[in-house]
């Protein structure tokens, strides 16, 4: 668990990164950039817990601090550590430290498994030792070499004509630094063909595509050449939950999105994500989000109106 740093004590690299994020993310929110898969995040106040399906990514905080929950695991970090997510995970994130004068500022780069595999081959990085798969999320100490590579990428926003030629080089260096780091084997095993971790990644991909369908764990296990007991064991090691719990998270998050963005009622949303019983849907929704669907939607809309007015 990392502790928040005083902005005045930041390294010159972190100070430069914070200044760049403030320039290119002038308002609160998630800001896409001219560099594909790179986003900048700003928040001027501590936030409410946000439920989302986090895609594989590197997140580096330049200022402020954040907490991420995966199942019962809690990851709290600041500018001294970075977060790496290696597979799609249903998480709950919350900005802990941010003010209008010293906002929370974060760099995010989505990771491509194919590019990671190419880097492993081209750099001739050794295959990871046969280890039991571990969490698909971890905190690593942010070293100067990684920050240098990130800054080279962010600086390209000032010279957009250089992005097509130079952004891929900076991204490759970022991947290289991650793979060479203390926890690089965690990324390596996710993209290593036929590893247990890579098989679990395939299961996660199937669940994302078919979350509204009935879950037949025996069929999935057979497809990835695992026993049902082995699949359950390794799936929980990577995601901190069972396949059924993972599917439930996907269903409920999608239902919440449908009600908020498409203005459908709870019964319709529940049916569209695979629930046959409205009462079961309402119970499980309340358990995850802390309120029944209608009340939760009113609270979310009121929160959106406050943000738009501020």
Automatic annotation (TrEMBL):
- Record keywords, A-Z: Transcription, Transcription regulation
Q: Does the keyword Transcription apply?
A: yes
What superkingdom heads the lineage? Bacteria
Molecular function (Gene Ontology), one example: DNA-binding transcription factor activity
Query: Has UniProt tagged this entry with the keyword Nuclease?
Result: no
Q: Which residues form the HTH araC/xylS-type domain?
A: 201-299
Name this polypeptide is given: AraC-like DNA-binding protein
């Amino acid at each position: 668990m990392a502790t928040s740093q005083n902005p005045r004590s930041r390294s010159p690299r972190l100070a430069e990164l914070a200044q760049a994020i403030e320039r290119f993310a002038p308002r609160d929110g998630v800001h896409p950039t001219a560099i594909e898969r790179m986003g900048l995040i700003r928040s001027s106040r501590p936030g409410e817990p946000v439920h989302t399906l986090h895609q594989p990514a590197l997140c580096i905080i330049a200022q402020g601090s954040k907490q991420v929950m995966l199942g019962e695991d809690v990851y709290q970090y600041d500018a001294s550590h970075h977060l790496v997510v290696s597979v799609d995970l249903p998480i709950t994130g919350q900005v802990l430290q941010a003010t209008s004068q010293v906002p929370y500022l974060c760099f995010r780069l989505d990771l491509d498994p194919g590019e990671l595999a190419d880097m492993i081959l081209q750099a001739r990085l050794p295959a990871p030792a046969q280890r039991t798969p571990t969490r698909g999320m971890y905190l690593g100490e942010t070293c100067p070499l990684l920050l240098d590579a990130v800054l080279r990428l962010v600086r390209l926003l000032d010279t957009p004509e250089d992005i097509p030629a130079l952004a891929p080089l900076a991204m490759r260096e970022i991947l290289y630094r991650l793979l060479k780091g203390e926890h690089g084997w965690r990324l390596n095993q996710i993209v290593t063909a036929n590893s247990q971790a890579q098989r679990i990644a395939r299961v996660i991909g199937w669940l994302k595509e078919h979350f509204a369908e009935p879950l037949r764990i025996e069929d999935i296990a057979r497809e990835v050449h695992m026993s049902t007991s082995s699949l359950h064991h390794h799936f929980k090691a990577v995601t901190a939950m069972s396949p059924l719990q993972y599917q439930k998270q996907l269903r409920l998050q999608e239902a919440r999105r449908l009600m908020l963005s498409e203005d459908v009622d709870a019964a319709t949303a529940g049916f569209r994500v695979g629930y046959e019983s409205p009462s079961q849907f309402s119970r499980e929704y309340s358990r995850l989000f802390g309120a029944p669907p209608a009340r939760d939607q009113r609270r979310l809309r009121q929160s959106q109106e406050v943000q738009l007015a501020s």
